[in-house]
Specification:
The strands form six sheets. The protein has a twelve-stranded mixed beta sheet with strand order 8-11-14-17-20-25-28-31-34-36-38-39. Strands 9-12-15-18-21-26-29-32-35-37 form a ten-stranded parallel beta sheet, with no helix packed on it. The chain has an eight-stranded parallel beta sheet with strand order 10-13-16-19-24-27-30-33, with no helix packed on it. 17% of the residues lie in helices and 27% in strands. The protein folds into three domains: 91 residues, MurE/MurF, N-terminal domain (Udp-n-acetylmuramoylalanyl-d-glutamate--2,6- Diaminopimelate Ligase, Chain: A, domain 1, 3-Layer(aba) Sandwich), CATH 3.40.1390.10; 215 residues, Hexapeptide repeat proteins (UDP N-Acetylglucosamine Acyltransferase, domain 1); 29 residues. A hairpin with a 4-residue loop joins strand 38 and strand 39. The protein is of the alpha/beta class.
Length: 357
């Protein structure tokens, strides 16, 4: 069992120890579930209540955390600028080393004679690699992955089972693609004909995935009609995300599950897009934009650093006012009906007075 002292953890994380730094830590857990000998963290103030009831031996807390507010706290604290990010680093110290597939090429893999395979690669059972594909060094490809002709893959990539990378697509370095993702499937292009049927538009472009991108399970990134669909450096796509043809997703952007981006839209750098967001085609988002889950963007989100929400997406402050007002709509409708009744009664009374004259 791997063990490390609180003092050693604090040194790694550049934190300040409060309490007994000699305590040995053997694992990590959520603060509400941690047991003795474990490390936990508190980043959100609403979880501070667990500080006095957790069984953790040490918790990572913010610099402003005040232990005197509680009847008791764990025997050791580590104060940090960012407990959440620091906990992510700490997890890596205790995570069991993954045993991926063995180095070398499995005898059932089908690899074109014209493909180029780098050094120290691991290629699993029933992998198919097409003509003239280029695979970089130290790439791990799990069973049942299909890589098309003329695909180029950089070094240190990791592809899990059932990933498909179609012809001519380009994958950068250190890219991770989870099971079932499809890179370079045809874009959804069909031209209506006079007889009300549809003619398929050939999808002649490619997909470019830049370095350090991670794509989760069953996500689809469609190839361009012409040119390229591009996912830029450091971006992370969650499960079941749909990226349509000719879309560009900027650097260090995160898109949560079940979201979709329609064709030819350009997503800015460092965007944070929540789950089940729908973004229409041929628009753009500025840098550092946030879009709340369930929102629909039907026009450009063009103010850098702004947060948007709702249907259609609006600046979050305006959306909150609209939401607050909508909760009063039933009462407002009743008041309007009462006012209409009063106005009708007054009109009838005035009419009677006029008739009497």
């Amino acid at each position: 069992m791997y063990m490390i002292t609180v003092n050693e953890i604090a040194t790694i994380l550049d934190g300040e120890v409060v309490g007994d730094g000699s305590i040995r830590i053997s694992g990590v857990a959520k603060v509400e579930e941690a047991q003795q000998g474990m490390l936990a963290f508190i980043a959100n103030p609403k979880y501070e209540k667990y500080a006095e009831i957790t069984s953790a031996s040490c918790i990572l807390v913010g610099r402003n955390f005040d232990p005197s507010k509680f009847s008791k706290v764990p025997p050791a604290l580590i104060k940090l600028d960012d407990p959440y990010s620091s906990f992510v680093i700490a997890i890596g110290k205790f995570a069991p080393k993954k045993i991926d597939i063995a180095k070398g090429i499995h005898p059932t893999a089908v690899i074109s004679a014209s493909a180029q395979i780098g050094s120290d690669c691991s290629i699993g059972a029933l992998v198919v690699i097409g003509d003239h594909a280029i695979i970089g060094d130290r790439v791990t490809i799990h069973p049942h992955v299909a890589i098309g002709r003329d695909v180029k893959i950089g070094s240190d990539c990791l592809f899990y089972s059932q990933v498909t990378i179609r012809e001519e697509c380009i994958i950068g370095k250190r890219v991770v693609i989870q099971p079932g993702a499809v890179i370079g499937g045809d874009g959804f292009g069909f031209a209506p004909k006079q007889d009300k049927t549809y003619q398929k538009i050939p999808q002649l472009g490619i997909v470019v995935i830049e370095d350090d991108v991670e794509i989760q399970a069953n996500t689809c990134v469609d190839r361009a009609t012409l040119g390229e669909t591009r996912i830029k450096r450091g971006t992370k796509l969650d499960n079941l995300v749909q990226i349509a043809h000719n879309v560009v997703v900027g650097e260090d952007t995160v898109i949560a599950g079940s979201s979709g981006v329609a064709g030819s839209t350009k997503i800015g750098n460092r965007n944070m897009i929540g789950g089940a967001v729908a973004i229409t085609g041929h628009i753009f988002t500025a840098d550092d934009v946030k879009v709340a889950g369930g929102s629909t963007a039907s026009r450009a989100l063009d103010e850098p650093g702004e947060t948007y929400s709702g249907y259609p997406a609006k600046k979050v402050a305006k959306w909150r006012r609209i939401e607050a007002a909508s909760r009063s709509l039933p009462e407002m409708l009743m008041e309007m009906k009462e006012l209409k009744d009063k106005v009708s009664a007054l009109e009838a009374e005035i009419l009677n007075i006029k008739k009497q004259r």
